[in-house]
Amino acid sequence: MPSDVKSSPASGAASSSAAGEVDPIVAGAPGVEPPSVKLIVRLFLIPLFIVAAAVGVMFLIGRLAGGTPSTEELLTRLRNPGGGRTAQMLIGPGSKQRFLDAKALTDTMKAGMTVPERVKLSADLIDIINNHTGTDEGDVRHFLLLALGRVWQRDGRHPEASGPDTADARVAALSTLLRYADSANLADRKAAILAMAYMSGNEEVRAAFPVLIKKLIDGNEDLDTRLAAATVLGPVATPEDANVIAALQAAMRDSEPRNAELVWASALSLAQLGQRDVEDTILKLLTRDELSKLDVYDRETDPKNPVFRKLSEQEQERYLINTMQGARKLGSPAVDEQMRVLSERDPSARVRYAAKEILQQK
């Protein structure tokens, strides 16, 4: 459950938001950004660390050269092939530039967009994703899939997009995400599913419910794909969606130790949907002593030899913050009291600050 989204393979559950925005997946609010929900972080945070310095250097160079690229310049560059090609992937400076351009494009959206800008950018992204990217480009396509969802994130600074043109554009965007949600490429599947969280509050996203539910309950599906579906269903559904609630409750009954994170993600989504019967699980995720006892199945440090391990301090902080965000409207006196305790006594200044902010929103 990340606190940051790599607006860019996602937070993460509970991750972008990396520096101050909260992930919609975690917060359940379409205008607020999925931090790292751990899954987005897992998808993108490590690559972000690797290129962070490069992004900074590119930014400074751009400023010295007369400013950062415009959206149109970024789109034009993304339509051009980058780098040399080996048997399995693109390499070289051109490939890195495409990666940086894809990330920069998602960053430009933070300034907000008018309705016509959304319609045009959505169509441009669909064209680039379908015709100008490949699975051999690392995270380029993943950033662009997340960006496509983010185009339709609700924004209080601009009027809500409405009318036949915008409805058609949202349907086309969701259709693209649904197609990649069934991709043979695991990273594409996860990114496409996580991107749907940004479409929360738009009626069109409800067409994705059958696919998301199927991914969630399919025991043969990759665990991270199931985690993505679990984290997205909370923000995009409503308390009246009985089929979504039933699927999340079924996932919570999974007793396989390796799927513990799926149980926790499902509980958090149920909390966002006002299901008070998840209170005990939420309280566990809000208690330091309990978090220190939890085991996660680490599939990333050494993919060929996954092992159980304890949560790091940073991971505990993310779980605490993301759980508070997801459960802030649960209406549980016990949960509210535990958030008050965290706001006053948690050893992490970051957790104390987040708890105070969330309590003020209640």
Task: Describe the 3D structure.
The protein is mostly helical and 362 residues long. The chain has one domain (24-361): Leucine-rich Repeat Variant (Alpha Horseshoe), CATH 1.25.10.10. It is built from 17 helices and 4 strands. It has helices at residues 24-27, 38-64, 71-78, 93-108, 115-131, 140-151, 164-181, 186-195, 209-217, 223-236, 242-252, 260-272, 279-285, 288-291, 313-327, 333-345, 349-361; strands at 84-85, 90-91, 295-298, 307-310. A two-stranded antiparallel sheet has the order 1-2. The chain has a two-stranded antiparallel ribbon with strand order 3-4. Strand 1 (84-85) and strand 2 (90-91) form a beta hairpin. Helix 10 (223-236) packs parallel to helix 12 and helix 16 packs across helix 17. The chain is globular, with a radius of gyration of 20 Å. The two termini are 22 Å apart. Residues 1-37, 43-66 and 83-93 have low confidence and may be disordered.
* Termini gap: 22 Å
CATH architecture: Alpha Horseshoe
The largest sheet, given as strand count, sense and whether it forms a barrel, is:
2 strands, antiparallel
Predict the CATH topology.
Leucine-rich Repeat Variant
* Strands side by side in the biggest sheet: 1-2
- The chain-level mean pLDDT equals 81
Enumerate how many helices there are, as a single number: 17
User: Which structural category fits the helices and strands?
Assistant: mainly alpha
Overall morphology: globular
